[in-house]
Amino acid sequence: MPITTLKLRWKSLIDGLRTRLGLDLPAQLENGLLRLQHARISARIPFLYLAIATVAFAASSGSGGPFSWLYHVALPGFFLTMGLVRGITWYRRRDQQVSVGKLRKRLRNTVILTIIMGVVGSAWTMDAYYATIEARRVLAPIFLFMITFAGAISMLNLPRAAIGSIVAGLSWPTAIMIASDDISIRAMGLCFGIIAVMMICLVVHQFADTLSNLKMRAELRQLAETDALTGLANRRAFERKFVDLSRENGGEPSVDLVMIDLDGFKRANDDHGHAAGDAILKEVAQRLQQICLGAICISRFGGDEFALMLPPAGDEKYAGEQDDAIRTALGLPYMFDGSIVKVSASLGRAHSPKNGSDLSQLMKYADGQLYRDKFGDAQAGVRYSAA
What we know:
Helices cover 71% and strands 9% of the residues. By secondary structure, the chain is α+β, with helices and mostly antiparallel strands. The radius of gyration is 31 Å and the shape is elongated.
């Protein structure tokens, strides 16, 4: 087989494995995966560490032979202390709301610690393996199974930790046991090797299912929160984004809310047909995306209503310049089927928290400003006094 073909197959295999392990996810999906992993680990890992501590105590009690500080105190104490400390730590974290960066750091530390515990357990097992026949019959199976099942419990949550613990804990002991002259130990090592390979395959397969479900939920959520015509966020997505910002900023997000209403859209729709109206709305969406590059969220609320969530302008002069630029961009002629169609835009802006910290308050204020822009102070005042 040509070397080029082998390289291509190897690259395809690596790329497929990276995809199945979630190593090439988009940033938005990666953040969702981190939160999912952290939530599941927070719920389950205290029990995992408690099991490790229990097995360490049982192994030290059943090791037999003369008293040894290493077997009966040092190593059991290490696993017992690590299990209790880490278990309590994760139990306290279960309801915490933290940033994505902190979640990533916690999970990375968990992977590293899991591999270290696998290496230490493997070294303890091999040291006991060469010590006495009794230790060989008792300690080796206990610790090999402890490491294996520790990885199995965490495999659905953190595959790198699961695979790392299996490889670090089982590869060296399994190889030595398979090379043993004792046929029973050789058979045990072969069984451990088969179990390790099967568990790694299971980790990859089940985690791929988790990623598939995560991607499907993200796609469904996007469909539910996207305006089908323009591709912009819909009102539901706009409201959720505001809630997220409020949560991140203690209930008072610092943003500007701009409401936009197209003037002359109904006439253009009546004169040129619904296809022209749809084309205009799509063009409006494109122009808003081009001119509002720093927008937090651009949304079509419905009909010819649009809304922008912008970083705070800072002063009224800059805010006015932004509004004028948007009016100018949306007021440029639209082309449809060889005809020039003219539509303009009216705007209203509200500042949070100056004009309110609740979305309904900001929208009401921005709506009032929009009607002043569209009809003038007199008619807008009559409309709002009547309401």
